[in-house]
Design brief:
14 strands, alpha+beta, four-stranded antiparallel sheet, 12 helices, five-stranded antiparallel sheet, Uridine Diphospho-n-acetylenolpyruvylglucosamine Reductase, domain 3, Uridine Diphospho-n-acetylenolpyruvylglucosamine Reductase, domain 2, globular, 2 domains
C-alpha cells in the first residue's frame, strides 16, 4: 500500500467535510473493493475516510409501504432482517448469496451500490424493485443512479446514506455464480409492485446491470416462467470472457429469468 491519512468521523456531516476538503480522499465502508485496490496499488488516495463509526448510516426500518436500509448495513444484516424477510423475502434471500461468510459480514449495501460492480446483486434488485438511493444531498431513482460499469450519478464527495425500497406484491431472484470467484455470471431479479412489472439483470450486460423491457412486457401480460422462456437477448449487448461467452450469458439471462419468476410465485 501507499501511505495515506486515516480518518474515522462520527457523523455524515464530518465525513462530507473531510471529503470536500481533499479531492483525493476516498470513503471506505466495508472495504471489499477499496482495500484490495490499495493492496495492489491500483488506487492511491491521500486519505481514507472510514464510515464504520457513523451510527446514523446503520439500521433497517419500515416506513409505511417502504423499507429503508442504512448505507452501512451489512449484507448479513439484510439477509437476516425480520423486516426484510417479511416485506421483501427475495431481497433477503439474495443477500444471503453474496460472496462468502466473511464478505457478508464485512461488506455493506451502500458500498456495493456506490461501487456498482457489474456483477453486484443490489443494482439489479433496486432497478427491479424501483428503489431510490438517498445521499447526503438528494434522492436518486435507481434508473437514474446506475449509469454503466462502475459508474453512478454520485458527484465527487457525495455519500450514499440510505436506500428506500417500495414493498412489492411479489419478487424473485436467481443467478448463476462463477464457482471460483462467486461473482454472478448472470442474475435476474423480477418484481411486481407499485412501479408495475420490472425485470433487471446483472453480471451479463456489457454496460453493467440493466432492465429487460421485453420480459417486463411479457410478464405484465402473463406472469409465468413460460412468458419469458422464448425471449432471446442480443449477445452483442452481453459481456463475454474466459468464464462464458456473450451468447452463453444471453442464454443464461433467459434461464435465470424463468427461475426468478418461479421463485416469486
Amino acid at each position: 500500500m501507499y501511505d495515506f491519512t486515516y480518518h474515522k468521523p462520527s457523523s455524515v456531516a464530518d465525513a462530507v467535510k473531510l471529503l470536500a476538503a481533499d479531492p483525493d480522499a476516498r470513503p471506505i465502508s466495508g472495504g471489499m473493493t477499496l482495500l484490495p485496490a490499495l493492496k495492489l496499488r491500483l488506487n492511491k488516495p491521500s486519505a481514507v475516510v472510514d464510515l464504520s463509526g457513523i451510527a446514523e448510516l446503520r439500521g433497517i426500518r419500515r416506513e409505511g409501504s417502504t423499507i429503508v436500509i442504512g448505507a452501512m448495513t451489512k449484507h448479513y444484516e439484510v439477509a437476516t432482517s425480520p423486516e426484510i424477510k417479511s416485506a421483501i423475502p427475495a431481497l433477503a434471500a439474495m443477500a444471503a448469496t453474496i460472496g462468502d461468510t466473511q464478505v457478508r459480514n464485512r461488506g455493506t449495501m451502500g458500498g456495493s451500490v456506490a461501487n456498482n460492480d457489474p456483477s453486484a446483486d443490489y443494482p439489479a434488485a433496486l432497478l427491479a424493485l424501483g428503489g431510490t438511493i438517498q445521499t447526503d444531498k438528494r434522492k436518486i431513482s435507481a434508473d437514474d443512479f446506475f449509469q454503466g460499469v462502475f459508474a453512478t450519478a454520485l458527484e465527487m464527495g457525495e455519500l450514499v446514506t440510505a436506500i428506500h425500497i417500495p414493498v412489492p406484491e411479489k419478487a424473485g431472484y436467481a443467478k448463476m455464480r462463477n464457482p471460483a470467484s462467486r461473482y454472478s455470471m448472470a442474475g435476474v431479479f423480477v418484481a411486481k409492485g407499485p412501479h408495475g412489472v420490472r425485470v433487471a439483470a446483472n453480471g451479463a450486460g456489457a454496460n453493467g446491470s440493466f432492465r429487460v423491457k421485453e420480459m417486463e412486457a411479457a410478464l405484465a401480460a402473463n406472469w409465468s416462467p413460460e412468458a419469458v422462456a422464448g425471449i432471446k437477448l442480443d449477445p452483442f449487448l452481453m459481456n463475454g470472457d474466459i468464464h462464458g461467452s456473450a451468447e452463453y450469458r444471453a442464454h443464461l439471462v433467459t434461464v435465470m429469468a424463468k427461475r426468478a419468476v418461479a421463485e416469486a410465485g
